[in-house]
Amino acid sequence: MLSGGGTGGHIFPAVAIANKIKEFHPNAEILFVGALGRMEMEKVPAAGYKIVGVPIAGLQRKLSLSNLKLPFLLLKSIRQTFQVMADFKPDAVVGTGGYASAPLLYAAGIKKVPYLIQEQNSFAGITNKLLAKKAGKICTAYEGMEQFFPAEKIMMTGNPVRKAIEECSGLKQEGITHFQLHSGVKTILVIGGSLGARTVNQALLGGLEVLANSGVQVIWQTGKGFYEQAKQAAKPFAGKIQVFDFIARMDLAYAAADLVISRAGASSVSEICLAGLPSVLVPSPNVAEDHQTKNAMALVKKNATVLVKDNEASSQLIAEALHIINDPTKLKELSNNAAAMAFRDSAGVIAKEVLKLAGF
């Protein structure tokens, strides 16, 4: 059984691990547990796996009456998860973070079912920190995670990403064709994460004319909430600015790109490194313990990205991106250093650890 949700950064690593388990053991039975109403309830079935939803919800960081419901939702979710586990009888459990994984990992600990935690970020999430004590193995992507977890349980594996992204090199022309781009024109890929990113989107919105007149072309993933506004704003620049609410073929998007503008979520950072792409990262300030800044700084220290602060994005992001994309030396330097930080086949390494815990 696997769980992790709320955002693509928790869901897609879990799916990547499940895919590898199925590759190693085609007859393996796999079941996901997710939070009702969250994107895992759509994305996991789309990946070909069954998922059971429980009513767990996340803590609102601002004062909110909805926080009063959380203890009751947690207890109900744990009770339902115990029932699902009793029916499914898992040999091992995997949690990839987010509040959605808390009931499953807690129930596994009580039932003495071995479980593995996969922590994507350089600063551990609260669910993973609380449930690390009973974990059989903790797979991480950054150095120095002993400050959060028992050192003897930690294994550096990198973050699992979709297999297609590990294999996207050599698909540039296919990517250009897929996104109806022009060959020989520098391409900027803008991604705010699976739910979008308001600051990044607003910066793009304010810089569309500058981008369109600069001789570059743009693939812009906005997230659902900003899509209609962005699509209307980009209409005068058809052929130069391609707008999408969600990009399913991220492998082709990375293949087509010469530069990526992105939030600094762990999965996005791992994908950028695996694709060996230069990037401008805009860490979200609206995350626990400012972990996206810490993710980005791990690359900045190795000259593998350029960081633009969230509160400076509106004035600096477009200019910084255009400066980099027109500097071949800087592009190559960032690309080489990002590629050097990539972990290969993280999902496969983690899947083997899960199978060991399960006794296979």
CATH topology of the largest domain: Rossmann fold
The CATH homologous superfamily of the largest domain is termed Glycogen Phosphorylase B
Shape summary: globular
Distance between the termini: 15 Å
Number of helices: 16
Content of β-strand: 5-15%
The share of residues in helices is 40-55%
Order of helices and strands: EHEHEHEHEHEEHHEHHEHEHEHEHEHHH
Low-confidence stretches: none
Radius of gyration, in angstroms, nearest whole number? 20 Å
User: How is the biggest beta sheet arranged?
Assistant: 7 strands, parallel
- For the secondary structure, the number of strands is 13
User: What is the second-level CATH architecture of the largest domain?
Assistant: 3-Layer(aba) Sandwich
Give average pLDDT, whole number.
Answer: 92
Strand order of the largest sheet: 3-2-1-4-5-6-7
Quick description:
With 360 residues, the protein is of the alpha/beta class. The chain has helices at 8-24, 40-46, 70-88, 102-111, 126-131, 163-166, 172-178, 198-206, 208-212, 227-234, 250-256, 266-275, 291-300, 313-325, 328-340, 346-358, and strands at 2-3, 31-35, 50-54, 93-95, 115-119, 137-140, 154-156, 187-191, 217-221, 241-244, 259-262, 279-281, 306-307.
Structure overview:
It is a single chain. The protein has 360 residues and is of the alpha/beta class. The protein folds into two domains: 2-159 and 344-358, Rossmann fold (3-Layer(aba) Sandwich), CATH 3.40.50.2000; 164-340, Glycogen Phosphorylase B (Rossmann fold). The protein is 44% helix and 14% strand. It contains 16 helices and 13 strands. The protein has helices at 8-24, 40-46, 70-88, 102-111, 126-131, 163-166, 172-178, 198-206, 208-212, 227-234, 250-256, 266-275, 291-300, 313-325, 328-340, 346-358; strands spanning 2-3, 31-35, 50-54, 93-95, 115-119, 137-140, 154-156, 187-191, 217-221, 241-244, 259-262, 279-281, 306-307. Strands 3-2-1-4-5-6-7 form a seven-stranded parallel sheet, with helices on both faces. Helix 4 links the parallel strand 4 (93-95) and strand 5 (115-119). The two termini are 15 Å apart.
